[in-house]
């Protein structure tokens, strides 16, 4: 496959240059328009493998992901501030322009979680919750109505904004806890969670994300589930990609690649029951999934996704 001569790459590069020239990435007519174009460009299914592109494009992609992350942070902060001005902020979540996407993504993640966990988790951690923790909110209010959520973010302002959304909600204010901490500094507390969600923008490149996953593998409870978000095809210009091979210390269970307006792929893995020190001694840091690993087709989205998961398993086998 070519590099800059690829039409999709050319289009993404043009949009990257436009984004780079913006005065700032806070929500505005121009910012919203360019990022909408970028998402619509990257959304259609595309066989492109970003890892095969030349170094120059790889560097552009890395910068673009950081710009997307910065813009997403500004967008969430902007709407968290608006929501915080309402008497009951959680009654107005639909003003967030991508709220319907979060409803679909959270339902997808709940369905995948239900396939691999035999009972309702009592305690979940969400790493990288941000100023508008929509995944936690939707899961807690619609799917996991008795579960406690511990939300971690490195930014004290983000947590401050998020906390302000819950004070008027008698249910979620009792089930939501916020921790201002770098997850790399959280150790023993990670053993308390049956499920850990890792936000797409924790670790803005693959190397940083792998470090976070390795840290979680070291301190999460044996048998606990890790749910993380990745990207596939052209959508990998928007978010970092994590390969199942990178899940050292975890048993890779399945991956689902949406083909609709939900951008992120969803990966689920289980922490090995084997002690971490055994893994570090080289007794099998990566045990690849066997053919019995459950394939999640979720036909209500797209029947073709089963093929991609089988292809991944064949590649790893």
Automatic annotation (TrEMBL):
<dbReference type="InterPro" id="IPR004298">
    <property type="entry name" value="Nicotian_synth"/>
</dbReference>
<protein>
    <recommendedName>
        <fullName>Nicotianamine synthase</fullName>
        <ecNumber>2.5.1.43</ecNumber>
    </recommendedName>
</protein>
<dbReference type="GO" id="GO:0030418">
    <property type="term" value="P:nicotianamine biosynthetic process"/>
</dbReference>
<comment type="similarity">
    <text>Belongs to the nicotianamine synthase (NAS)-like family.</text>
</comment>
<keyword id="KW-0808">Transferase</keyword>
<dbReference type="GO" id="GO:0030410">
    <property type="term" value="F:nicotianamine synthase activity"/>
</dbReference>
<dbReference type="InterPro" id="IPR029063">
    <property type="entry name" value="SAM-dependent_MTases_sf"/>
</dbReference>
<dbReference type="Pfam" id="PF03059">
    <property type="entry name" value="NAS"/>
</dbReference>
<keyword id="KW-0949">S-adenosyl-L-methionine</keyword>
<comment type="function">
    <text>Synthesizes nicotianamine, a polyamine which serves as a sensor for the physiological iron status within the plant, and/or might be involved in the transport of iron.</text>
</comment>
């Amino acid at each position: 496959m070519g590099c800059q001569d690829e039409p999709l790459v050319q289009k993404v590069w043009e949009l990257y240059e436009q984004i780079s020239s913006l005065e700032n990435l806070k929500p505005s007519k121009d910012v919203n328009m360019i990022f909408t174009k970028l998402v619509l460009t990257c959304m259609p299914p595309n066989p492109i493998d970003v890892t095969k592109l030349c170094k120059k494009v790889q560097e552009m992609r890395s910068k673009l992901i950081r710009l997307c992350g910065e813009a997403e942070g500004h967008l969430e902060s902007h709407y968290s501030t608006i929501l915080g001005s309402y008497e009951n902020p959680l009654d107005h979540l639909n003003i967030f322009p991508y709220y319907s996407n979060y409803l679909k993504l959270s339902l997808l993640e709940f369905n995948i979680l239900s396939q691999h966990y035999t009972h309702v988790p009592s305690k979940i951690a969400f790493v990288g919750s941000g100023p508008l923790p929509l995944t936690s909110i939707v899961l807690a209010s619609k799917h996991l109505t008795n579960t406690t959520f511990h939300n971690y973010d490195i930014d004290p302002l983000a947590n401050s904004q998020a906390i302000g959304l819950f004070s008027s909600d008698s249910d979620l204010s009792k089930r939501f806890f916020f921790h201002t901490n770098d997850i790399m500094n959280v150790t023993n507390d990670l053993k308390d969670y049956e499920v850990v969600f890792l936000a797409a923008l924790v670790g803005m490149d693959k190397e940083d994300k792998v470090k976070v996953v390795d840290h979680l593998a070291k301190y999460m409870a044996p048998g606990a589930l890790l749910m993380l978000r990745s990207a596939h095809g052209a959508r990998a210009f928007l978010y970092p990609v994590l390969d199942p091979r990178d899940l050292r210390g975890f048993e890779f269970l399945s991956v689902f690649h949406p083909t609709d307006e939900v951008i992120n792929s969803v990966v689920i893995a289980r922490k090995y029951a084997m002690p971490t020190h055994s893994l570090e001694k080289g007794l099998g840091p990566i045990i690849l999934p066997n053919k019995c690993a459950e394939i999640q087709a979720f036909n209500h989205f797209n029947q073709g996704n089963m093929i991609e998961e089988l292809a991944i398993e064949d590649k790893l086998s």
